[in-house]
Design a protein that fits this description.
The complex is a heterodimer of chains A (761) and B (161). Chain A is built from 17 helices and 34 strands. Chain A is α+β, with helices and mostly antiparallel strands and 761 residues long. Chain B folds into two domains: 76 residues, Beta-grasp domain (Ubiquitin-like (UB roll), Roll); 67 residues, DNA polymerase, domain 1 (Orthogonal Bundle). Chain B starts with 9 loop residues before the first strand and ends with a helix. Classes of the chains: A alpha+beta (761), B alpha+beta (161). Chains A and B meet through helix 1, helix 3 and helix 15 of A and helix 2, helix 3, helix 4 and helix 5 of B.
Chain lengths: 761, 161
């Protein structure tokens, strides 16, 4: 193919391909789907954080009119009842014990939800309450009650073959990494700082709660419509549980009403499938928001960090010991703790490193993936302490960071991808956008923070592009549309490479029986990994078109070019429909292109080399109401190194949303437990950011050097913007008041108490 | 505990998206369920169930209400507008256009509620200030966009009038 001309579709803020259906109310989500004869399910959840099940009496529920199925653990003899992507530690329904307030005990499917609720009221469960571990301190205390007694089976996630539980404790996985002289490196430090920071349990609050509809066909095949971010992982889980070949299971994914990591891996799908099998009809299991709070959350953490600096400000050693509270079941938390801890050194050059983290079970809602995947918890500690270090060293916080930034092309860790962005440029842009070098008005102060995150590796994404006889194209990928705009981006990439209008491209919704394998829609990876697969698949089609044209025109393919839905060579111009007609000898047939992105295993510490480094930097300017302790974020600047924006407007939208979600856990959000019970599993007690919480001045800045591994030099975006928010705001608060808070969220009460403690001191 | 269900029903007449509709509803039926399950109008979404998030917002005699906590019988004799009643097949409502142009739509789950709340605001105040828009959106949550693009879309639409 000849050298590409200027881009037509990529790099432009085209309208989202799903915008029209969404503004007209025609968009269909899981909860909008109905199947003939479909039953509706409800779950009976444990009211206790930990209890022995002495008896579960369901006879009256079974006899209730309108009930199609009542399931307890005792009924699940016909399938493998345990699941979980890292550890198969989670039963479909509680067996002998319940492990958190909200653990499902009985599932009912009935003609409608009201009848299912009536039936659940007829169930009698005899619990013997047991002492629970609600905090990291309790869970890690010697002799603590064990959330899980036996050793669970390994899950299907390939790169967790090295799961390291500590038997006899509540630790289900440990991560260790060291380089250089490890802790010995602190001998070279002129300044050593050590401190502990904590990060709360927070909830994704996707506006659409989890849901699944399952239906078995007459041949024993299973179809599940699911609000999931990774249908193939759900398929693998169901295949194992129900003893089916993958080909007999179909996972179809409608539009998602938000995901943010909370819809990764199997959640309600296994229960919906089991209910549907017993009910002998399709079953819908639709969670409420209260249920979602008892389905998954972000792993909370206690992070102890030691930073060692030379006299000149160079980082010489970093030590991080982190305990992540992963709740009652491991879900994907073992990966969260290692991914989060791995980049504890931030985007900095550090010769001596020793990192250790534990995934700790507690009797709380399971912790799993959530935008940032462990990095926000660690960055809150490390980036707060970078500012403490700057103060102790008498340095400007931006300058100290600049001195330590890794250079473009420099190694982050042996075997992993070298730094693929110009970090200094990002730092300069954030300093500029937040007006770092201008004095703040009285009563205001600024703070900055920086981060770097690895994406999941190894991973696989495949794409198929079909060029139809009329010259329009279908793109088959399993990327899930959860609001991030991925379907629009995939259409843009295909339209660009095929040189056809965007309106001639259709992106087929994810369906494991139709669309090809993709590991997961998470980790900010879709544009880079799936996008590249689409680019390759479209290029494959173009290659076939060139070959057909070359044969017909009797010229080498190299002499031909692609232009506006045609192949051109000299004076000749052959439109795609004409070329397909020539090729097939009739008006029919189609060209199929394939793209596979599968970088495979490497010697990198996490088993694969990150396809790109997600780099995000943030600057906050705050004011404070000293009477109430309320922080107001007056201005925020977010800088993301995205390589190239495929759709600048959607990149902005992702970044703005990430920052606002970060402001949530920074200022407002925390799941509060008392007496083993979650007190605020609703939107009244759990406050998420509203429109009025948006900073008055907000800048979203993109660094675009086309240096990413994705299509057209793109890299991932979407998670990064969230990460620097907490330390940037915390650093601003410290610069404004001298008060350094180590516990999130920075609620008015916490700030007010700190102000008062200082006044009284 | 046994809940004794009420199975009797009441007849209500409403104007729904400009058309008269008469239907029998149970006295405890929520407007959201009637719209979504009986009338197949799926644009209003169920999320928080407690009148906080605004995903189920519909207009009742022009005022935004949370259909998730509103009894269908109380709509008797009144005019209901759902997102399906905005614009026409040929021409979108200017707010719908503005939401598309400003990328105020991401996952779309809040969109219907946002549009209808904005519709009510602009009917009340055709040229609201930014502060007014932000304040008016207190009852509508969005977890994707960060709100800025929604506010911009509403303001652009207001200014264009």
């Amino acid at each position: 193919m000849s050298a590409p001309g200027p881009l037509r579709v990529v790099g432009r803020s085209v309208r989202r391909t799903d915008a029209l259906e969404k503004v007209t109310g025609r968009a269909r989500y899981l909860s909008d789907l109905e199947l003939p004869g479909m039953a509706h399910a409800r779950l009976l959840r444990s009211p206790y954080p930990r209890a022995r099940l002495l008896g579960v009496e369901v006879a009256r529920a079974r006899a209730h009119p309108g009930v199609h199925a009542v399931l307890t653990a005792a009924d699940l003899t016909w399938c493998e009842p345990f699941y979980g992507p890292a550890l198969r530690d989670r039963p479909l329904l509680a067996t002998d014990v319940v492990r958190y307030e909200g653990d499902p005990v009985v599932a009912v499917a009935a003609v409608d939800e009201a009848t299912a609720v009536e039936a659940l009221d007829l169930v009698e469960v005899d619990y013997e309450e047991l002492p629970a571990v609600m905090t990291l301190e309790e869970a890690l205390a010697p002799g603590a009650p064990l959330v899980h007694a036996g050793e669970p089976l390994a899950g299907h996630f390939s790169d967790l073959s090295t799961l390291r539980a500590r038997p006899g404790t509540n630790i289900c996985h440990q991560f260790d990494y060291a380089r250089g002289r490890g802790a010995g490196g602190f001998a070279e430090a002129a300044l050593t700082l050590e401190d502990t920071y904590t990060f709360p349990r927070v909830q994704h609050y996707s506006m659409e709660p989890h849901g699944a509809i399952a239906a078995w066909d007459a041949e024993g095949g299973l179809t599940v419509w699911a609000s999931t971010q990774n249908p193939f992982s759900v398929r693998a889980e169901l295949a194992k549980m129900f003893g089916l070949p993958a080909s007999r299971i179909r996972i179809a994914v409608p539009l998602l009403g938000g995901g943010f990591g909370g819809k990764t891996y199997a959640k309600l799908e296994p229960l919906a499938a089991a209910l549907a099998r017993v009910a002998g009809r399709p079953v819908r299991l639709q969670a409420s928001v209260e249920d979602a709070f008892r389905t998954v959350r972000r792993c909370s953490a206690r992070v102890r960090v030691r930073l060692g600096f030379r006299r000149d400000g160079g980082l010489v050693a970093v030590q991080c010991d982190a305990d992540f509270d992963v709740g009652a079941y491991a879900d994907i938390a073992p990966r969260v703790i290692q991914k989060g801890t791995y980049t504890a050194t931030g985007p900095y050059r550090v010769p001596n490193v020793v990192l250790h983290s534990n995934a700790v079970y507690t009797n709380t809602t399971p912790g799993g993936a959530f935008r940032g995947f462990g990095v926000p918890q660690i960055a809150w500690a490390v980036e707060s302490m970078m500012d403490v270090a700057a103060e102790r060293l008498g340095r400007d916080p931006v300058d100290l960071r600049r001195q330590n930034l890794l250079a473009h092309g420099e190694e982050f860790a042996r075997g992993d991808t070298p730094v693929d962005g110009k970090l200094e440029e990002s730092l300069s842009r954030v300093a500029e956008a937040i007006r770092w070098h201008q004095a703040s008005a009285a009563g205001r102060a600024k703070g900055v923070a920086v981060m770097m995150k690895a994406s999941v590796a190894p991973s696989v994404s495949e794409a198929i592009v079909r060029l139809h006889a009329d010259g329009s194209a279908s793109v088959l990928v399993s990327t899930v549309e959860m609001g991030q705009g991925a379907r629009t981006v995939m259409a843009q990439i295909a339209a660009e490479v095929l040189a056809i209008p965007l309106a001639r491209v259709t992106v087929v919704p994810p369906d494991t029986s139709i669309t090809p394998y993709d590991q997961t829609t998470s980790s900010s990876r879709s544009t880079t990994m799936v996008g590249r697969a689409v680019q390759d698949a479209a290029a494959d089609v173009v290659g076939q078109l060139l070959k057909i044209a070359a044969a017909h025109l009797g010229v080498p393919a190299g002499a031909l070019a692609v232009d506006d839905a045609a192949i051109v060579g000299g004076q000749r111009r052959l439109g795609y429909p004409e070329l397909l007609d020539l090729h097939f000898g009739m008006r029919g047939g189609e060209l199929i292109g394939r793209g596979v992105v599968a970088p495979g295993r490497t010697q990198a510490p996490l088993g694969g080399s990150t396809p790109f480094w997600e780099v995000a930097m943030g600057g906050a300017e705050i004011s404070l109401d000293e009477e109430t302790g309320a922080i107001c974020v007056e201005a925020y600047a977010s800088v993301a190194d995205v390589g190239r924006c495929i759709n600048p407007q959607q990149c902005e939208a992702q970044d703005e949303g990430a920052v606002m979600q970060g402001l949530g856990h920074t200022l407002l959000e925390e799941m509060v437990y008392e007496g083993g019970v979650l007190l605020n599993a609703n939107l009244v007690g759990y406050r998420v950011p509203r429109a009025e919480d948006v900073p008055a001045r907000f800048d979203s800045v993109f660094v675009e050097n086309a240096d990413g591994a994705g299509p057209f030099g793109a890299k991932g975006v979407g998670e990064g913007g969230l990460v620097p928010v907490s330390p940037a705001v915390g650093n601003a608060l410290a610069r404004l008041t001298g008060i350094r808070l180590r516990e999130l969220p920075l609620t008015p009460e916490r700030v007010w108490r700190a102000l008062r403690a200082r006044r009284d001191a | 505990m046994n809940i004794i269900p009420i199975r009797s029903s009441c007849s209500i007449r409403v104007t729904l998206n400009g058309r008269p509709v008469e239907l029998a509803v149970r006295p405890e039926a929520l407007l959201l369920d009637v719209l979504r399950d009986r009338l197949q109008l799926k644009g209003a979404k169920r999320s928080c169930d407690m009148q906080v998030c605004g995903a189920c917002t519909v207009l009742l005699d022009g005022a935004p209400v949370s259909a998730c906590t509103f009894l269908a019988v109380e709509a008797d004799g009144r005019e209901i507008v759902t997102v399906e009643g905005l614009g026409t097949e040929e021409r979108l409502d200017p707010l719908q256009e503005a939401f598309i142009d400003h990328a105020a739509v991401q996952c779309g789950f809040c969109t219907a509620g946002m549009l209808l709340t904005a519709k009510a605001l602009l009917a009340e105040d055709p040229a609201p200030t930014r502060e007014r828009v932000v304040h008016y959106l207190r009852g509508n949550l969005c977890r994707c966009t960060g709100y800025r693009k929604i506010v911009e879309a509403i303001l652009a639409c207001a200014h264009a009038r």
